[in-house]
């Protein structure tokens, strides 16, 4: 099974963890702490910042079938290869930026970089795809800009260290999930030496279990998901760190995927930077300036155009159409490039969508 295929399986399993709604179960208080107290704890954690910036890496771990808690992570993260690096910026006044870049180790192969932006104040959704070598981004290859109604980000890219903390598809935080879904409190267990409340729910398509650290702001120390297809995902936070004001945050974590009828995949998640309550550069949430020849999809009109390149004016019109930013639009698309670029942009936007396609093709 190829590395890319295994990575995509992990992505789609975590998306399923964050997206599929559970069937409701009866909440029980079998310990000295209640679900309401846990929700209040996580709500206080979330209320302590107005924005957050996280930079993290995903690295490959040895293929070990043993459960994550039965073996130790590497002492030196740099000893295992890195295949993905991401910067994520979120602000509670409607800003969300995901900037992820893949890495390949075979000389001559091309890396990819995807930037997914939600600019709430300007009601814009922006998706940009770059292609180039791991050492130097070659350039912007496609760009899609479309208006969105006032609301929440719609990105489905996985924020790996935020598993169990932030649900990207619905843009909900842990305290919101605890309030909108009904969980069963099963008790308090020790995870890596810390007392954690174990909560669970069972849905039609999967069962999910969270262990929330009662000593560290109620953050998830372990998340498990078992789907009806037999896929099992286990996520364990091995190390926490303290940010400004003593706020706890993940530092290192591991992900293990057991795919039905397939091998085990283990990944290491390393947070290299984490900051809260920053002075943000708002220009980063605007569309990037495309170079000549960039394929641009105008989500407002559905028109495709190449930045800086105007087609010959048709005989029936002496003035070519222009977009709102003055760039010429292609009035026709005889080669079907519009349909191709739109499909390509959609694939680039969602790792999970690509994973599903690969899985179905394999089946």
Q: Which short descriptors sum up this protein?
A:
37% strand, 363 residues, 5 helices, 15-stranded mixed sheet, alpha+beta, 17% helix, disordered C terminus
Account of the 3D structure:
The strands form two sheets. This protein has a 15-stranded mixed beta sheet, with helices on one face. The protein has a two-stranded antiparallel ribbon with strand order 7-8. The relative contact order is 0.19. The protein has one domain. The longest helix has 17 residues, at 3-19. The protein is globular. The protein is built from five helices and 17 strands. The protein is 17% helix and 37% strand. The model is unreliable at 12-30 and 311-363 (pLDDT under 50). The chain has 363 residues and is of the alpha+beta class. α2 (35-47) packs antiparallel against α3.
Distance between the termini: 13 Å
Number of strands: 17
Give the proportion of residues in helices: 10-25%
Number of domains: 1
- Described by the principal axes of the CA atoms, the overall outline is globular
The averaged pLDDT comes out at 76
Order of helices and strands: HHEEEEEEEEHEEEEEEEEEHH
Q: Please report the number of helical segments.
A: 5
Largest sheet: 15 strands, mixed
Strand content: 35-45%
- The structure class reads alpha+beta
């Amino acid at each position: 099974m190829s590395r890319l295929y295994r990575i995509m399986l992990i992505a789609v399993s975590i998306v399923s963890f964050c997206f599929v709604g559970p069937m409701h179960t009866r909440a029980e208080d079998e310990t000295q702490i209640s679900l309401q107290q846990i929700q209040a704890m996580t709500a206080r954690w979330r209320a302590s910042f107005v924005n957050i910036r996280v930079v993290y890496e995903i690295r490959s771990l040895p293929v070990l079938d043993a459960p994550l808690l039965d073996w130790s992570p590497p002492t030196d993260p740099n000893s295992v290869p890195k295949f993905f690096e991401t910067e994520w910026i979120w602000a509670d006044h409607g800003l969300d930026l995901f900037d992820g870049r893949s890495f390949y180790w075979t000389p001559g192969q091309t890396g990819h970089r995807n930037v997914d932006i939600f600019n709430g104040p300007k009601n814009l959704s922006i998706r940009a795809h770059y292609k180039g070598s791991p050492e130097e981004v070659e350039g912007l290859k496609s760009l899609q800009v479309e208006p969105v109604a006032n609301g929440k980000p719609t990105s489905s890219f996985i924020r790996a260290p935020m598993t169990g903390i932030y649900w990207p598809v619905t843009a909900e935080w842990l305290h919101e999930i605890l309030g909108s879904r009904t969980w069963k409190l099963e008790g308090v267990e020790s995870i890596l030496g810390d007392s954690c409340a174990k909560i669970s729910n069972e849905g039609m398509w999967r069962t999910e279990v969270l262990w929330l650290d009662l000593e560290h702001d109620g953050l998830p120390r372990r998340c498990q998901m078992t789907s009806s297809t037999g896929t099992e995902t286990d996520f364990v936070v091995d190390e926490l760190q303290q940010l400004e004001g003593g706020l706890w945050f993940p530092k290192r974590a591991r992900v293990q995927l057991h795919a039905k009828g397939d091998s085990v995949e283990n990944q290491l998640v390393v947070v290299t930077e984490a900051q809260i309550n920053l002075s943000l550069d708002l220009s980063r949430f605007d569309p990037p300036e495309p170079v000549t020849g960039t394929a641009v999809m105008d989500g407002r009109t559905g028109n495709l155009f190449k930045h800086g390149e105007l087609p010959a004016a048709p005989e029936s019109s002496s003035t070519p159409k222009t977009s709102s930013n003055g760039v010429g639009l292609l009035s026709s698309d005889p080669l079907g490039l519009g349909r191709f670029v739109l499909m390509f942009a959609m694939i680039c936007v969602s790792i999970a969508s690509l994973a599903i396609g690969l899985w179905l093709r394999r089946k």
